[in-house]
Amino acid sequence: MTGSSHGPRLDPAFLTPGTSSFAEFLSTQAPELLPHRRALPDGSAADLAPHGTTIVAATFPGGVVMAGDRRATMGNIIAQRDIEKVFPADEYSCVGIAGTAGLAVEMVRLFQTELEHYEKIEGTTLSMDGKANRLAALIRGNLGMAMQGLAVVPLFAGYDHTQEQGRIFSYDVTGGRYEETAFHSVGSGSLFARGSLKKLYREDLDAEGCTTAVVQALYDAADDDSATGGPDVTRRIFPVVGVITDEGYQRLGDTEVAGIADRVIAARMNRPDGPAAALT
Amino acid sequence: MSMPFYVSPEQLMKDRADFARKGIARGRSVAVVQYADGIVFVSENPSQALHKVSEIYDRIAFAAVGRYNEFENLRIAGVRLADMRGYAYDRRDVTGRGLANAYAQTLGTIFSSGGEKPYEVEIFVAEVGDRAADDQVYRLTYDGQVADEHDYAVMGGSAEQAATYLKEHWTEGAGLDDSIRLAVVALGQDGNGGRTINAGDLEVAILDRTRSQQRKFKRLTVAQLRRILPDENGGGDGGTEPGPDGPGHPSTDPSGPDDPADPTDTITQQPPLEDPTSGEPEPPIAPPVS
Asked: Where is this region: Disordered (chain B) (predicted)?
């Protein structure tokens, strides 16, 4: 933080009208607070920090569900068993992040502040596409870090009041923004999760059915990807699941997710590969 | 050789203070009232877009009277300061006291510096606590003075009459609806029996400690206000939009009946006290030359 903002009188920059973007304001007033404004020495920093892994999201009529596993890894080490990687971005959207955990958490905080800041200054919320584009800009700024192994890849989902449906956006490290239909997944276990959702997802699932489908997908990801954590039945650690409808973001309670996870595990006792899909 | 024009420092400060006070008195009042579950802000503001009461941070709100562009600048500065502090440290580290201090220093410096016109604003910075005893309301004046207010406070316009009314009628631990009704009647005090203020001309917002969200600030809609305010306050007719000639609605139509109590009524010979849409006082006379 700059000395000026600590000083007794507000810096003239604070009183200058102009930007409604918090990140833009920070870049002039306290650039050292921005995650991507740090100079790194040459070489890869990929092995220095824990990585978060798999995030899945799927839409249902009237909303969208996002879930993330709880594992962070550093090479072959499990760095954390109960990390949280799905966060509410504002009242009607959430963001889940795969990649370098420390940077990801910082970027989520910046994104949350960015949305709230705009809302307070302008007196209205950004459109769903506006929010998705702001996140793309933050990711784009991180490209230099990504090239040194500190990539952050988010998945963004929310309820769009104008279209009256849940929407999902995925990103690449260059800030490319892609709208996804029905479901999507990011992170190291995402291939397996997406394959699983392909067979399990139906458009007419309700919120609970959709939640079960994403928990199944995370189970399948954990089954085949060592960096994704499955439900931890001994420690009772289960995926973080957020549901967004026109009533806003709601994180499902631990008991609710535990109930779904226990049913999934019980069914897999009989058939370890999960529910069988019809051949034709 | 011409004689330098001498103005004593006392006179200079007095002129600047008079100038700022005049600007503030032309606007309409804002009342802040503590109730059982938090703090309610009530102001007379016909504009739905230009707010006098706004959110700064999780538990902190801002209310102002005076020149719109000046307090809007201060509001944005407050949001920036709060968001920056919350981002650099933690959300709990953003306090109303810190913000009031920054405002006080800013207003004070501007007031006493010769080069700038003093701000014609008065501000409330309020922070809701976990208990009613922890609630804080700061009142900042144009010259950077800070006062710690308790229970209720009014600024701008006919603040004294409203404050007198609140002093007589305010009770501790009142509910939200009662507190809003009390504040609306208080704002209507004009020395000759009082006038009623339409629900559509009110801006009401609360800091509600019982709100489950992290952000405790909430605006009340006109429909909610109509349910709360009694019928004689106009528009208590079950949610239908009262027409310009509805009961108790002051007319702004030049061909309509004259309402001397309404400052936005344009057909009296007196000029309107403030811009009917922005609520901003008329442009002031040129600032005193230093």
From this structure: 227-290
